[in-house]
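Sequence, please.
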């Protein structure tokens, strides 16, 4: 018997090392290097019949003909937008997300609603389980085939028989190929099976949608290399205890990464949310203190989001600060700014902050709404529900302009807000809008205007 060959792989970054080490020399993570069996032999038998490939000739840019790109319609408008207009033939799309967030549901719904022959390969659920789920989501593509299999060679055999137009793999971590001996989910298996899928996609023009698990740091489990290899990396995020889910493109070779899709998880599967702003703002009968509405942008999309804060005297010695959906470090910075620049004594107060809907916001334009929510709770005075806020707050307490302010103003106006507070340095004039634009330059200005 041939000697088994092994190599050492970092489970974090995927680097191959000659010997075992305590710390990976590439990514500097500790205890991530694991010995894996690699027994690479000649491999060729997965091939699907394709015409012999011609050598490529270098062309001048002006001589390259643009073939009218046909994209497969993913049916879901939200998904089509995120992909930049549909699924490109021969592309390989990776969908990452935390366990239970709805990756399998989304892929199954897409597979079931498409007008093409789809092969859905699951290594995680049985055919019966998938059938039960399919009945809940209630779309029926007669040409959607379900296969429970984890061996890539057997998957390619099934593909040869069925000739699907689109392939879905749930999930890459369950696949294994005969040519690598380590267990499924190991770095060498992930690398190898992805390479096989990419070859298959490119040579047959079949798009492959692959689900990938996410590790505790939030990146797709397995080597970062995986993200470099595929054409599109999508991320499905949200809070499992809430119903809203956001689909983002982290990388897209065929379109922008600015678009994002919003879904709601219902008993009957995922539904697209067409008017997210209206849903994310909770309806109230009376004005309550501690809430403020931010006009944010998620990708290209304007989104009105409600920020809630609770400021109370600390019961224990050290005040607590907690934040959901907003960066805690940034909240601490905002509190320091309010203390130093606006004279609010918040040092001995507990501060809790929450972005409603269970989504997390990175847009700096939410800063001003955070300030207003904190001050409103601290003063116990409400801010009218029809005021919106959109500005970044700097360390000196200055109110800074943010990008695409016109788009935010338009959204606020559309939803019936009466006033929007922005930075003095934004170049927009009052003339074109019905909403009153209030320009401020320092956090201190807010106090006089609101409380
Ligand atoms: P799933 O797609 O299995 O998640 P992932 O593949 O990302 O691990 O989704 C699982 C969750 O979705 C589960 O907690 C139940 C919920 N769900 C619904 O609420 N409604 C539905 O119709 C379906 C199919 C799932
Ligand atoms: Mg799943």
């Amino acid at each position: 018997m041939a000697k088994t060959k092994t190599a050492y792989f970092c489970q974090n970054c995927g680097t191959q090392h000659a010997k075992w080490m305590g710390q990976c020399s590439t990514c500097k993570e500790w205890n991530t290097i694991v010995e894996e069996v690699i027994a690479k032999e000649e491999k060729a038998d997965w091939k699907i019949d394709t015409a012999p490939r011609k050598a490529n000739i270098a062309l001048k840019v002006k001589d390259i003909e643009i073939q009218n790109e046909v994209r497969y319609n993913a049916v879901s408008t939200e998904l089509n937008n995120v992909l930049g207009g549909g699924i490109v033939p021969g592309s390989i799309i990776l969908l990452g997300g935390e366990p239970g967030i709805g990756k399998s549901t989304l892929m199954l719904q897409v597979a079931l609603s498409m007008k093409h022959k789809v092969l859905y390969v699951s290594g995680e659920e049985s055919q019966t389980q998938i059938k039960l789920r399919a009945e809940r989501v209630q779309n029926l593509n007669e040409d959607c085939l379900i296969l429970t299999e984890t061996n890539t060679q057997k998957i390619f055999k099934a593909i040869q028989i069925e000739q699907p137009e689109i392939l879905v793999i749930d999930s890459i971590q369950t696949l294994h190929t005969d040519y690598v001996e380590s267990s499924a989910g190991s770095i060498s298996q992930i690398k190898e099976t992805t390479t096989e899928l990419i070859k298959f996609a490119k040579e047959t023009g079949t798009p492959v949608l692959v689900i990938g698990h996410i590790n505790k740091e939030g990146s797709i489990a397995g080597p970062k290399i995986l993200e470099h290899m595929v054409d599109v990396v999508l991320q499905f995020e949200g809070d499992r205890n809430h119903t809203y889910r956001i689909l983002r493109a982290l990388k897209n070779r065929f379109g922008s990464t600015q678009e994002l899709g919003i879904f709601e998880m219902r008993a009957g599967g995922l539904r697209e949310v067409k008017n997210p702003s209206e849903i994310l703002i909770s309806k109230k009968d009376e004005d309550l203190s501690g809430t403020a509405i931010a006009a944010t942008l998620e990708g290209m999309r304007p989104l009105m989001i409600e920020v809630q804060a609770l400021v109370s005297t600390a019961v224990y010695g050290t005040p607590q600060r907690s934040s959901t959906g907003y960066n805690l470090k940034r909240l601490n910075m905002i509190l320091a700014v309010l203390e130093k620049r606006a004279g609010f004594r918040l040092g001995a107060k507990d501060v809790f902050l929450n972005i409603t809907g269970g989504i997390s916001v990175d847009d700096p334009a939410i800063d001003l709404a955070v300030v207003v929510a904190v001050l409103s709770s601290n003063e116990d005075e409400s801010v009218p529900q029809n005021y919106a806020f959109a500005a970044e707050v700097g360390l000196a307490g200055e109110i800074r302009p943010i990008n695409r302010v016109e788009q935010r103003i338009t959204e606020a106006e559309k939803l019936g807000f009466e006033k929007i507070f922005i930075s003095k340095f934004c170049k927009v004039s009052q003339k074109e809008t019905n909403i009153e634009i209030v320009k401020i330059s320092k956090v201190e200005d807010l106090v006089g205007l609101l409380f």
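The longest helix spans residues 187-204.
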